[in-house]
Amino acid sequence: QVQLAESGGGLVQAGGSLRLSCAASGRTLSKYNFGWFRQAPGKEREFVAAISWSGLNKDYVDSVKGRFTISRDNAKNTVYLQMNNLKPEDTAVYYCAARYRTIASYDYWGQGTQVTVSS
Question: 8, 12, 15, 106: least buried by Cβ within 10 Å?
Answer without folding.
Answer: 15
